[in-house]
Queue: 2 jobs
Job 1
Amino acid sequence: MHKTFISQNPSVLWFIGLLGLFTLAVVVGSEATGTGLISTSMVKTLGKTLCLCLIAIAMDVVWGYCGILSLGHFAFFGIGGYAIGMWLMYARTEIIVLGSLEGQVIKPTPQEISDAIGNQIFGVVGSSEFPWLWAFADSLFLQLLMVVLVPGLLALVFGWLAFRSRVTGVYLSILTQAMTLALSLWLFQNDSGLRGNNGLSGLQNIPGYEDTSQAVISLVFFLGSALALACGYILFAWVVSGKMGSVVQGIRDNEARVRFLGYRVEGYKLFIFTLTAVISGIAGALYYPQAGIINPAELAPIASIYLAVWVAIGGRGRLYGAVIGAAFVSLLSSWFTGGGAPAINLGFYTILWTDWWLVLLGVSFVCVTLFFPKGIGGLFDYLVRKPS
Amino acid sequence: MLRRFLTLIVFLGIAGVAQAQDLQPVLQTHAAEIANPSRSSVSVALEDLAASGAPQVSDFLEQWEDKGVWQRTSDGMFFFATEEGNDLRLRDIDTGAETLAPKSGFSQLKPNGGVRRLIGTALVQFQLADPDLARRASAVDSIARRPDESQLEPLLASVDGEPDAALKARKIQLANFLSASFAPDPNDKIDAINSLSKDTSIEARAVLNQILSVKTGVSADAPTGNVARLLKVGRDLSQEAAYAQLVEAKLAPPLVPSGSIRDALAANVVGGKVGDIPTAQLDNQPMREAAYAVLAGDGLVPPLVTQAEQIAAVEAHTFFEVYDEDNAAFTDAARAALDSIETRVGAAQTVDLTLDALSLASIYFLAAIGLAITFGVMGVINMAHGEFIMMGAYTGYVVQQFVPDYTVSIIIALPLAFAVTFAAGVAMERLVIRHLYHRPLETLLATFGISVALQQLAKNIFGTQARPLTSPGWLDGAWVFSDVIQISYIRIAIFVLALLFLGLILFVLKRTRLGLEVRAVTQNPGMAASMGINPDRINMLTFGLGSGIAGIAGVAIGLYAKVTSEMGADYIVQSFMTVVVGGVGNVWGTLAGASLIGFLQKGIEWFNPSNTLAAQTYMVLFIILFIQFRPKGIVAQKGRAAAD
């Protein structure tokens, strides 16, 4: 069975192979284990890019394969980040607080410890009480469960409501966008319990590993991201191939016809929607410890639209297309906005790419939609002739 | 008009007569009372001063009260004077001529506190009857700022002679406030309080609230005084607050906070143990309390107050609020008046809220109506719609840079904004959207690309800071009905503009050739084409129309909000929700959607006024739920057009 899956999807082997080579190259080049050719901040950028690739393939499955243009997947990504961020922040603050209470004659009570931690974390929003949201923040295991459960349940409930009332197409996109907007507006409030627009910070410091250098931590996270991407790729490749994949793609092409053939369209859509939401949450949980900070602006509706942009530029309906799109656009974007690109002097006007990159992105996006609907991934069709 | 003119003549006449009169002789006749006034003797002098009708009287009284009047010892003449070192700068009371003289020959008039109050009352009386309207008004204002018992009588006396109607009304109102607080006769006071029940102003409420001011009290037996209400522990105040009140009244021993327990334990460590308990075991509250009890038993620290003791102490006492005012008749009348005012204010607030909601709805309607045409009628998702709003606003801003007159510039900006965004819309339709008519999701993404590019372009051209779009002077200010109900003119203008557009669009769609063709192409492009309609041209014009209206909406929105490159993005999601909630393909639906969202948002804000973010969150959640149960919107399309 496994053999046939691989033989049906030669691209999976190619992808895993290339990802493995890339990972090996980074390990060899990194400061922690190798020659130091690749700086720690570069390792972090590459690790974050891998997480973005993971959410991009999730987006590709839900949009490119199932035809649901969700503008809410970045919200799931953010939820994953917040879930892990809560534990990271709590555990680290606990260590700091315990350290500061160390020398006292009378040992602190659990209540005093918890008050001191609450004061540290929520001082910025003028509070010191732990909101109910943080009930499990002291347990890594439970928070890891939240990374999966919260996006999964949210997607399940939201998807069930939406698909049940046959909200489709553009309406569903607007509805998912509204969900993202509501979530980010809620997070922006100081009394939501997640520190309002300050967000969670200091996530790059892993509790219990204070003595480990960032070079090692970032490499570990890079390897974790690579592993997650590989697993996600195989999982999604398996989901979209075979009978299930055919039904899902059938829904994309003509939902009514699939329904008339006797399939429970809502069930398939709900499964895909929820599964991709869970994977998005995992991607977010890997991304934000590398980014170090998460705030509600990350979840704004525009982020989810950019996600769709990456997938469209990379090429919908092919998993490696999404990976190419996410990696290409996000790396290019950080190169342009980070001042890496040289300014062009036209004599009467100097084009600074920090100002003009978004214009270029917007225009190229229109061009891709108009002239290359298959995206960058479509170029591979010229290399590989399909037998049929 | 004639009456006012006559009044003026009369006043000028009086002033003319008075001008001739000198004050010094009058002062000299009462020189003794003025130089050494006492509360009993000064009133005669004050009455005579008032009777003289000289215009300098008010000036004199003011200076006298401020100890600015000096008497020459040699002849008893009075002067206004200010000290300059060892000299005095003298000012003649009648002529105003200034001279410098050594201080030694003069003595300062220093009326005592009681006399100064009498002078002040007389002064108020003078100012209240001053021929100059502005001085009278300022006297009334100063009374309103610092209401005092002594001002009541002069104020009442001046009401009848007041020629100016507005000021007279204000005087009567103020007299009511003063009587409600200070009237000597209880019946007058109650009448005044009752008369306030129709006055919704904040001042009236402040007067009543002052009468109703309470302080909390606690006692072991039945409460005394004019009791406002009894407080029930658990319902009106919490157990902790009640006990804190007991402690404050010294009726119960203070609680020992957990911090002090720890400090007390830490201070009494003996050989690694506190009260026979090793310090290592003191990391929880029960053990700490046990150790503390041992210390308390040794008399080293004040004992802990247990939960049971607290409850017993609270139960043994009565908690109540008592009025500062002793007379129950006054407080009852004031309570009734305040209740009546609050009912009125509540009604007025409802009206005000409705007006607010209406104006918000009209803004949403303006922002969404263009979208209703492009999305609703043509089925094209235009994510750049918000950027068309922004383009319109910036057009208005640019016009104002060239045309300094704000009225003219707005008149130019409105059609120009339409033209600019119409052209942009047509260009976008021709170049991009035309190729994507059958791929709605891709239209969404392509127009999003355009939106990103336009937004950044605007940022590059105009910078990131907000640009002002100034409204003409006649749109400044607000239409004030009462203290509670008011609406700014600009919001009225936007409301009118929204109505105009509703009418205009209905007219274009239902009564013109273009509208007929648009509806035909919407329903069946193929059939329309075979009837001789050019669908390409119609699509282009429709899209241009929708975009052009977005431009005009941009000017209107820019007038009351700031113009930034991101202003479009603020409206795009709301606009889409307006169209979707209202029902696609129907102008009335958009109106219904905008009203629903506007009223809903204001309603939620009213429940939780401190948090507009929460209001938006709940509104979006409501919309999500609403679409679940009415996926086609409020005004649903029927028939074949509904199947997509």
Job 2
Amino acid sequence: MIEHRRFGNLLPHLILLAGVAIVAFPVYLAIIASTHDNTVIANGQMPLYPGSHGLETYWNTIVSGTGKTTRQAVGVMMLNSLIMAIGIAVGKIAISIISAYAIVFFSFPFRMTAFWTIFITLMLPVEVRIFPTYKITSDLHMLDSYAGLILPLIASATATLLFRQFFMTVPKELVEASKIDGAGPIRFFWDTLLPLSVTNIAALFVILFIYGWNQYLWPLLITTRDDMQTIVIGIKKIIDVHDALTEWQVAMATAVLAMLPPVAVVVLMQRLFVKGLIETEK
Amino acid sequence: MANVTLRNVRKAYPNGFEAIKGVDVDVADGQFCVLVGPSGCGKSTLLRMVAGLETISSGEIDIGGRIVNQVEPAERDIAMVFQNYALYPHMSVYNNMAYGLRNRRMPQPEIDTRVQEAARILELGAMLDRKPGQLSGGQRQRVAMGRAIVRQPKVFLFDEPLSNLDAKLRIAMRVEIRKLQRRLNTTSIYVTHDQLEAMTLADILVVMNGGQVEQVGNPLDIYQKPATTFVASFIGAPPMNLMPLSADELKSQLAGDSRINDAGILGIRPEDFVVSNETVAGGIALGLTVEAIERVGAETFIYGTRERDVQGVAANPGELPPGEVLVRIPGAIGPAIGERIRAIAAPDKLHLFTADGRQRVGP
């Protein structure tokens, strides 16, 4: 349905532009706000043009932190968030690809039991099992550690299911050809299955990285030390100050900074991501 | 180089289904053995048992003097070409061929020599850097063959390798496979359901049905002297006409034949009929009403019904309906529809089988 009318394209474009404006305006506002002095924002008149304090604000936010509110520099928080998000994404992918491999390609007693057990955990996200999980994490002395941030979130029924569905489409002759070519189970996994799964892994990585980056409740519970804070919690703490003026420019700068890594991941992996979601040819 | 011997090989599944019910086959060194049969007859299962991809319930499989029942596929010194080629989609043509050799820790110069040699034989030289996805069906087929050749195995196993190709390419590849096998002189086992492919490729033909071997032998011997009605109707296209010998005129025509006492079914190949008004001593003459005619240029197929309404044998799919007889005559000239004709067959063209069709009567 391709039509070329002189003004026919105008209306769709207007609608699209309106949509973009609605989505992008708050982001624009956050960026603008982060470039102004706190007094400008605090008097209630939010300007729509960039201010002159941008570099100064970001420098303070990332490197030194500010004395009154965040005792921790956002740079450290970003590092924590990054380690957690990458740890969760990589860990989830590693564990689920191995369990899917076992479930699809090997026959062992209670194979289907194992599969359904994994499946059932779909119904048990962190929020539901938060107390037992906290107890175990604390008993293992993993509070305030990267392991404590990452490990309890690592098991993933969704990713296992996704890999299982993909593995089941791999022709069984490919497995047999590998056997005849002298490749054992581990070789087959590394040489054939993993390269074939690259696009799926990339798509999952994008989704899981953002999932990990956006974690709020779990890091809030198990981190008490300031140097273990993640950026999502950092934002909350900056806004939530008592007996002082909220440093809006810092809060906005932190929000902008918190947006950057997920955006970067999506932009960098966009091609693989789309391929992974739509590709059917093996 | 090696011979392959199957001794009373059986395959039973845990649910009690017997896929292979005791098969004995002996393939001599350098021979091309074709397993042929309808789908579900167990031919692929048997091949996969030789490859080591299926376990053997009982019996022995011997490759080159070594019993391989418990040997892993990779250690059986075989190479297999799959129906869907099973090429590694992420590897280049070169790596597809080299992969098995690398896994065997062969030195790189040797691998390179072998792959280049195979590429030369199969005319794949210009495509070594491509991925299987960029190749045509025939080229993929050749890569799959190349992957088998570079291994220089004792035995090639082919599992319906041509069934994914179009008709023209299939014939071309069939000839190529045969030439290649002659040249390399490697013992081969080839599975197909196409009787033409089976006839043209085989040194030794194994006709299978329902998990059992119906007949083993030279393709022409099998064509000329089918051991059962199943073989008679499966080998040869169009299939042999099979008519029951009840108390009717057929029986009286054969009254002088010594085989008649044991026989219950008469078989005549469509191409062994002659349309004529003469009579042949000891032969058969059928009065037919022409129902349909197919002219393909070089030959003409006449579908006729016999005068009397006789119950025929249609035990297998693809056979003619009871009472209908197919006559194949050379040339494009033939009778018209509705015409009455007489089809005669000489005594040496008659095949007689016992009433259950399981045994051939006489020579």
